[in-house]
């Protein structure tokens, strides 16, 4: 329950169109860090479709100096943070409204609205930051044409940027200058952006397929320019891919990216002026890992693709957030898979995406913050930028893609833009366009039922039961579905669930699939489960098969089927579907882990049976599998994923079991790891392509395993080899993999290696973030991690005000290191509560994300459960909490 005086929930059902429209916005900024002046001239008009009402404009931490209507002063009143104008002219004629305000960007630690970072002005307006710049109808369905004039001291702020096209610039008196920008496209206020500071740019001119010239620019601070080549290449690839795949061309004369180290998010798709966290722009061989290079490509693609799916067509209201985010995540996933090139590399990308979904989103679906892809209510919209909105939303789009096919999906996208370009619309509008463009598809046939994916929270469970009749040579498969109750949704109606499947022979060969009554057969088929239970019968099945179900993870569900070990080992060795081949190994590892976790006996040294270890050896030594794929198959499920399979969670028991499994693989496959390091350890001249990256990843895993085995045996030769590899590495991936191997194995050489690493990269903030994260995320050895984290908070390079730095140290410990965080003495929980409160006073968005780390506290065994609840209650008891954090902890306690 909310305490008296707190913000109340906003309901999707209460949506009403605005009483006023804003057609044009003319903004003039006199930029000064201590006091920026903002003159806002708007042309507004009444919405004739709703009853006449006063104009209520949103504002936050603004100093109001003047309000004028049609050139004359006017009366107004303040209602909380809103500016209310009740005496505006009647009728439908446009009204000229002028508002003059000031704000203090250098004191804006929330990093929302207009703020200063290291002497440069930036903005972040999504979702409700524009109201911190000027009074406005700060909602996504109010779309206007913007003209922006920026004025500032030329020496201090030589670069002045805003959305759209630069139409004028020049010098002013007193050492100042100006730039005037006009955006040719209507946009909501959340897509507004400005940047002003000392920046340099990498530029690239391109020509579209239509023959139009465009200028691409990536702006960074002086000294970082050499790290922008990959970002520029990624942007060019994104532009070309969107034209080729969906026929969507760049619609601006120029497209700009600007990087800042102080940013709450990964990046922001402001129309034509994307503002990025430096983490997703800066990359060089010496400072960025292969993962960093891949993330830069993915995020650059994501934000560019928003230019159409999010900007040209935007959300009617924030409940429709997945309209743009789920769709655009799907698009950036497809982009990354297409850029990967080979089928194996595509499979690796798909597996990586599913791992995120299952380790983060599935727990969210089962926790106190469970919500549908299209939520029904929220208190603070910033709390709903979640993996459900993004990653599960992308899976809902992917299911539509699977149900209508690749060509059908392209047709649906074309119809979607033909209907809604330039509009603010809903999730229903998108799926309706997909169905209308493909009237014969299963999506169109089950349209209303499919929409339940947008309205029902929770992860469905699909149970499969099979029966083979040897005499009739038939195989009968029965699928049933269910979904657990979530807050506010006790009963769930059946979903539309595409289940792609195949059958394997006992030798692993693919068996033909022929549904009873059909004349044709295939090797893979998509069954569409729409009822609580359905049965399919396959004919001419010559032998008892091994089912390969939910291929490619064709729906975001939990699959229950009583596989025996032999069936899973067959899949692990032979399944032609790369996802299910990987999944078979994961199922076996989880099965053995849970047996050990739930046992009353001490954790054994050999948790894994010999047959499974032998199967993993075969994968590692396989002559044709890609290194990246091998690395995924050999990686054990995370402690967090194991915890989600249990009703009661003892974090230390899980940690001990997984560590035992890891040490067993390290020792049992020691010769194989040495072979892998020798085989894949030298990739030649550095390239961040999928094949080379996969080899480095597998070599890094092999080195870690060799160092772990060495630590147990007492033979530290491999520690010395790892330290030498650390010193000699020609790229950050190899260097950091070697450093990680030393740190995670507890080698004595870890300390000098960490010191050397800091000395080498003390002037590279993103690299030092890795340095902090590695130490906070190491395995808990004797309870020493928390004291080390506390000590690192005192390090001269640590700053709680910088989101990247706070995440690198505090989040790495509290949210990503369960073995060290969940302490029997509750010290980890006390630390978490102190940091949430400390961050909340500075930056509520970052604080609320840290608060999410305790979502699943109610599953904990004692004594952890009581101690965790007490820590959450301490946070909730603070009277002046932000809405961001209060919503999180209130819902968490409500799960008790």
Automatic annotation (TrEMBL):
What SUPFAM superfamilies does the database record attribute to this sequence? Leukotriene A4 hydrolase N-terminal domain, Metalloproteases ('zincins'), catalytic domain
Catalytic reaction(s) noted: Release of an N-terminal amino acid, Xaa-|-Yaa- from a peptide, amide or arylamide. Xaa is preferably Ala, but may be most amino acids including Pro (slow action). When a terminal hydrophobic residue is followed by a prolyl residue, the two may be released as an intact Xaa-Pro dipeptide
- Its recorded name reads Aminopeptidase N
Start and end of every Peptidase M1 alanyl aminopeptidase Ig-like fold domain? 458-562
Query: Where do the Aminopeptidase N-like N-terminal domain residues begin and end?
Result: 26-191
Query: Which EC number(s) does UniProt give?
Result: 3.4.11.2
Query: InterPro entries recorded for this chain?
Result: Aminopeptidase_N-like_N, Aminopeptidase_N-like_N_sf, PepN_Ig-like_sf, Peptidase_M1, Peptidase_M1_dom, Peptidase_M1_pepN, Peptidase_M1_pepN_C, Peptidase_M1_pepN_C_sf
Q: Which organism is it from?
A: Comamonas jiangduensis
Cross-referenced NCBIfam families, in alphabetical order?
A: pepN_proteo
Q: Which domain of life is it from?
A: Bacteria
Q: Which residues form the Peptidase M1 alanyl aminopeptidase C-terminal domain?
A: 565-893
Q: Which residues form the Peptidase M1 membrane alanine aminopeptidase domain?
A: 231-447
* Gene3D superfamilies per record: 2.60.40.1840, 3.30.2010.30, Neutral Protease Domain 2, Peptidase M1, alanyl aminopeptidase, C-terminal domain, tricorn interacting facor f3 domain
Which cofactors does this gene product need?
Zn(2+)
Per the record, a Pfam family? DUF3458_C
* Keywords carried by this UniProt record: Aminopeptidase, Hydrolase, Metal-binding, Metalloprotease, Protease, Zinc
Q: What class of enzyme is it?
A: hydrolase
Family from the record: Belongs to the peptidase M1 family.
Q: What one GO molecular function would you report for this record?
A: alanyl aminopeptidase activity
